[in-house]
Amino acid sequence: MCSSDLWNRGVPAGGGDRGDPPTDGDGSGQCWLTDNVAGNSDVDGGHTTLISPVLDASAPNAILQYDRWYSNNNGASPNADVFVVRISDDAGATWVVLEEVGPSGPEAGGGWYTVQFNMASITGIDPTDQMRLSFDASDLGDGAVVEAGIEAISITSIDCEECVGDLDGNGVVDIEDILLVIAGFGDEYTVDDILVVLAAFGSSC
């Protein structure tokens, strides 16, 4: 644990000084922040972890998104620590690293960043209805000023509905689709494909 370590949800109180965000990132007015008070109030002497509630990513094509703030480029030992985001598919029984921010680079010097992950592409987990995230900020060196923030966590799913017979993607099965399937007959398309387009002729998606 840290001497100054708790994550707090509220209106940013640091005024943009010493690595604090001056405002939240998405305009909601509030966010999760490390030791959200004005003045000398950063992560000190260890690490602090914010863990999300259980999230559902079981729908097809699930996309994880969140906004994060991380600053470690002030103090006696700047750019020495990292901000680690982990993900679990079993409600926190096991974890894998999703991303590390820092110890240097533009995203370790403050600023709100929106990041996205295709859940099916994350190595080491399966998208389930038992997902959790953990956000770990630390000051393990010689006194860096470390500040972190998180907000706008969401998991959404895109339903890609197939439009049968609409070969040109204009949302309607029309004469252009018939011409396309005829032009591609014997190469891209078969008699069955022609029959599908004719059966769907006039429909919209």
How would you describe the overall organization of this protein?
The mean pLDDT is 88. The protein has 205 residues and is mostly beta strands. The strands form two sheets. A five-stranded antiparallel β-sheet has the order 1-2-9-4-7, with no helix packed on it. Strands 3-8-5-6 form a four-stranded antiparallel β-sheet, with no helix packed on it. The chain contains two helices and nine strands, in the order βββββββββαα.
Structural class: mainly beta
Widest sheet: strand ordering:
1-2-9-4-7
Most strands sheet: 5 strands, antiparallel
Strand content: 35-45%
Summarize the helix and strand pattern as letters: EEEEEEEEEHH
The Rg value, from CA coordinates, equals 24 Å
- Poorly predicted spans: none
Helix content: under 10%
Average pLDDT confidence is 88
Tally of separate helices: 2
* Envelope shape: elongated
Number of strands: 9
End-to-end distance, in Å? 55 Å
Short description:
With 205 residues, this protein is mainly beta.
List its salient traits.
205 residues; 35% strand
Sequence-ordered SSE layout with sheet pairings:
Elements: E1 7-10, E2 31-34, E3 46-51, E4 62-75, E5 83-88, E6 96-101, E7 109-118, E8 132-139, E9 144-157, H1 175-183, H2 191-200
Antiparallel strand pairs: 1-2, 2-9, 3-8, 4-7, 4-9, 5-6, 5-8
Helix pairs in contact: 1-2
